[in-house]
């Protein structure tokens, strides 16, 4: 009932684009800040791009800030991650997470920050 579900991952060539979706069910996602995170084997999970619950302020890490855009559609209870100019280094399992009224930068950068909800993840594979 109460969950986040990611979709939109897949295999894409370097330089290509994907749009990931994070859709909430059982609760109103508008009341939560939402972040996209990714994890690859042998590395810690890292924040990618996050959006706040109130005014929609966003934050993205330096490695993606010129290529990725996070947005939300309140009517669809969904947060998106538009990923352009994808690189092999972007290959990872991407997760979305929700946390009430959290600043975007903190949500992405503070690795120890607990989340209210996590999705199961969607795989993005950037390869030629």
Notes on the protein architecture:
The structure is a single chain. With 128 residues, this protein is mainly β. The chain is built from one helix and eleven strands, in the order E-E-E-E-E-E-E-E-E-H-E-E. The protein has one helix spanning 104-109; strands at residues 3-7, 10-12, 18-25, 32-39, 46-51, 58-60, 68-73, 78-83, 92-100, 117-118, 122-126. The strands form two sheets. Strands 2, 4, 5, 6, 9, 10 and 11 form a seven-stranded mixed sheet that branches. The longest helix has 6 residues, at 104-109. The relative contact order is 0.31.
Our Rg estimate from Cα atoms comes to 13 Å
Count of DSSP helices?
Answer: 1
Strand content: over 45%
In round numbers, the mean pLDDT is: 97
Number of strands: 11
- Structural class determined from secondary elements: mainly beta
Q: What summary fits the major beta sheet?
A: 7 strands, mixed
Helix percent reads under 10%
End-to-end C-alpha gap: 38 Å
Helix-strand topology string: EEEEEEEEEHEE
3D shape: globular
């Amino acid at each position: 009932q109460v969950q986040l579900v990611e979709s939109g991952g897949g295999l894409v060539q370097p330089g290509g684009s994907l749009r990931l979706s994070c859709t909430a069910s059982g609760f109103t996602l508008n009341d939560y800040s939402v972040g996209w995170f990714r994890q690859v084997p042998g590395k810690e999970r890292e924040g990618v791009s996050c959006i706040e619950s109130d005014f929609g302020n966003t934050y993205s890490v330096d490695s993606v800030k010129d290529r990725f855009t996070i947005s939300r559609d309140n009517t669809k209870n969904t947060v998106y991650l538009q990923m352009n100019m994808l690189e092999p280094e972007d290959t990872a399992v991407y997760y979305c997470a929700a946390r009430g009224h959290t600043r975007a930068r903190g949500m992405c950068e503070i690795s120890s920050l607990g989340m209210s909800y996590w999705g199961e993840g969607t795989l993005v594979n950037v390869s030629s």
